[in-house]
Amino acid sequence: MYRGWTADNEIKDASTFTYGPGSVLIISPGTLHTNWNASKTESMTYITFHFNIESLTLKSEIISTIANAVIPADAPIAKLAMKSAEQMVAYSDDPGLDKEQTNIKIQIELLNFLYGLMENINAYKPKNAKYSEREAKVSREMATLIEDYIDKEEVPIFSFGDICQKLGISTGYGHRTFKKVYGITPLHFIEEQKYRKAKLLLGSPEYSIEEISYMMGASSISNFSKQFKKWSGVTPSKYQRQIVTKRKVRNVKESGYFE
Fold first, then answer.
1. How many other CB atoms sit within 10 Å of the CB of residue 39?
2. C-alpha 148: how far from its chain's center?
3. Cα gap 20→2, rounded to integer Å
4. Do residues 11 and 3 make contact, with C-beta atoms less than 8 angstroms apart?
5. Which of 185, 183, 198, 192 is nearest to 235 (CA)?
6. What is the pLDDT of residue 144?
7. If you ran DSSP here, which 8-state letter would residue 6 be given?
């Protein structure tokens, strides 16, 4: 989102985009880009926020319709994005909110933005999609198989090659197609799904970290702990303590837990 005079944004392997006050550019995941002020004399202000979407359907629609293209200031999505970004900045600067309250407010605003995208994205759908119906179908099948593996009670050891073999396609084609449709690599998606499940299990008080590491298919507790810390920045035990702390609530007797 841009406020000020004109700016240029160059995306690798694509053209340079020039955009002005109120314009918006939604950039696909993993896209290398450079942004700079087109004016040598006037000041420039722009707001950037990074977000991820669990819905692969919405993610693929964004990538195929509005990603890596300038959305003019008078367009509904541009107005929505500017409003959301400015609100996020306001929440971040609000001294009356603590860190957790700020994070929740920002998450709510992001959800409002995504809902607005869903309502307005159909107007941007091109006649010729950036990927074929077959590519979309194959990608959905790959994503479903990955989710089915990871949602099992005990995550089996599998590779992306196993997924492609089940569908009768080469790993090269599978990798290119998945990235083309969803904007992330299949390996990245597998890691996202494993992280999602690990958080859910760690949030369940009936499971120990040892049991969770076994359910996640890790070769040892140590390897699971290293991998979870790589994903989240904290150890599984610390994450569990944080979850328990958030569940604590005060009742009339100043004690108790919310489960």
1. 13
2. 20
3. 7
4. no
5. 198
6. 92
7. -
First to last CA, the chain: 40
**What span, in angstroms and rounded, lies between the C-alpha atoms of 193 and 179?**
16
Closest to 217 in 3D by CA, of 149, 129, 131: 149
Q: Provide the whole-model pTM.
A: 0.61
CA dihedral 83, 89, 95, 97 (to 10 degrees): 70
Would you tell me the crossing angle of helices 133-150 and 160-167 to the nearest 10 degrees? 130
Give, to the nearest 10 degrees, the angle between helix 221-232 and helix 236-247: 60
The amino acid at 98: D
Under a CB-based contact definition with an 8 Å cutoff, are residues 78 and 25 in contact? no
Q: Give which of 121, 116, 108 is closest to 69, Cα–Cα.
A: 121
Establish how many alpha carbons lie within 13 A of residue 71's alpha carbon, considering only the half-sphere containing its beta carbon: 23
Residue 250: what pLDDT? 43
Q: What SS3 class is residue 194? A: helix
Bridge partners (DSSP) of residue 37 are 7
- At 80-97, the pLDDT tens digits run 998 998 999 999 999 999
Q: Which of 23, 116, 35, 3 has its CA nearest to residue 75?
A: 23
The per-residue b/e assignment along 14-35, b for 16 or more CB within 10 angstroms, e otherwise, is eeebebebbbbbbbbbeeeeeb
Enter the tokens of residue 61. 């629609």
Burial label for 246, CB within 10 Å (0-12, 13-18, 19+), is exposed
The pair phi, psi for residue 178, each rounded to 5°, is: -60, -45
CA 253 to chain centre: 41
What would the mean pLDDT of 128-149 be, rounded to a whole number?
87
Residue with tokens 């709510």: 108
